[in-house]
Amino acid sequence: MELGQLLQKRVGLLFPGQGSQHVGMGQRVHQLSEAARRIFVQAEEILGLPLRRLCFEGPAEELADTANAQPAILTVSLAYLEALRERLRELGASLQPSMVAGHSLGEFTALVAAKALHFEDALRLVRERGRLMREVSQERPGGMAAVIGLERDALEEVCREASELGLVVVANDNSPGQLVISGEEQALQRAMELAQRRGAKRVVRLGVTVASHSPLMERVAHALAEMLARIPLREPEIPIVANVTGRILSTVEEIRRELACQVAQPVQWTTSVREMTNRGVTTFLEVGPGQVLTGLVKKIQRDVEAYSMRDLGLES
């Protein structure tokens, strides 16, 4: 798809979360765009991390460490966004999205895109968010798994049964027919087995080592709330749809509550995408590594268009 075609559409920008990281991410856009290169340099100066080496060369295990993956995905996503803006400026145009949303970690990126949160503050927040999540996961090991083809009521019953072995809950409503469970290791394994027995088409362990969007992350939520109280925020210049409610975030206080509590609350992604289409979005653009959100949009709302950075030639 030609980038200029986006100017004729009501576009919603989507920013991916943890799990979308892969070695090599962002390397092509770094080669193609001066604006993207500036984002990488700025992020490395702010955090003192070799983000380009991590993103382009790995090793995969180091990149997947949640304290590294979160600022890396945020940086790569914003590098893509700046590359898009740069290309449009060359055409004498500007990117004017109708709405933005981000999946989990991606919500921080969306708020930077909407000019409600400074890039520097977002980087420090997600680095600490990742560090705290890793700390909790070391104390109470766990993870997440996607469950495909099982109704929510049935999966919640599975989680209740598996909770005899520890905490496990439904964490993400990603699209019709795709839910994610999150919890402590033994309970998660038991829930995965039960889900398969109850008729799930597929159960897939996700490449994350933390039990995000579960009550295990309450301590992280409290720490984030304290950090957010000290960080300057502004009302978004572009409407942003929240993970927790699937509704528009309007005020600074709503943003503070959302960013703190979403780490321990389920992601209502199906509701979020439908809210955007109900408000007139006809085309979705996933701004970040991978194509996971592009695929989810097509399952949620079949009559809209959805594209990734690969479709624009910015990702190999």
Describe the structure.
- The chain has 316 residues and is α/β, with parallel strands linked by helices.
- It has helices at 27-32, 34-47, 51-57, 60-64, 66-90, 106-113, 119-139, 152-162, 185-197, 218-228, 252-261, 269-278, 292-300; strands spanning 11-15, 99-102, 142-148, 168-175, 178-184, 202-205, 240-241, 248-249, 283-286, 305-307.
- A 4-stranded parallel β-sheet has the order 2-1-9-10, sandwiched between helices.
- The longest helix is centred in the first third of the chain and has 25 residues, at 66-90.
- The chain is globular.
Brief write-up:
The protein has 316 residues and is α/β, with parallel strands linked by helices.
Features:
316 residues; 4-stranded parallel beta sheet; alpha/beta
Distance between the termini: 15 Å
Number of strands: 10
Give the class from helix and strand content and strand pairing.
alpha/beta
The string of secondary-structure elements, in order, is: EHHHHHEHHEHEEHEHEEHHEHE
Strand content: 5-15%
Most strands sheet? 4 strands, parallel
Into which percent range does the helicity of residues fall?
40-55%
What's the overall geometry? globular
What are the segments in which pLDDT stays under 50 over at least 5 consecutive residues? Answer: none
List the helices and strands and how they pair.
Blueprint: E1 11-15, H1 27-32, H2 34-47, H3 51-57, H4 60-64, H5 66-90, E2 99-102, H6 106-113, H7 119-139, E3 142-148, H8 152-162, E4 168-175, E5 178-184, H9 185-197, E6 202-205, H10 218-228, E7 240-241, E8 248-249, H11 252-261, H12 269-278, E9 283-286, H13 292-300, E10 305-307
Parallel strand pairs: 1-2, 1-9, 9-10
Antiparallel strand pairs: 3-5, 3-6, 4-5, 7-8
Helix pairs in contact: 2-5, 2-7, 5-6, 5-7, 7-10, 8-9, 10-11
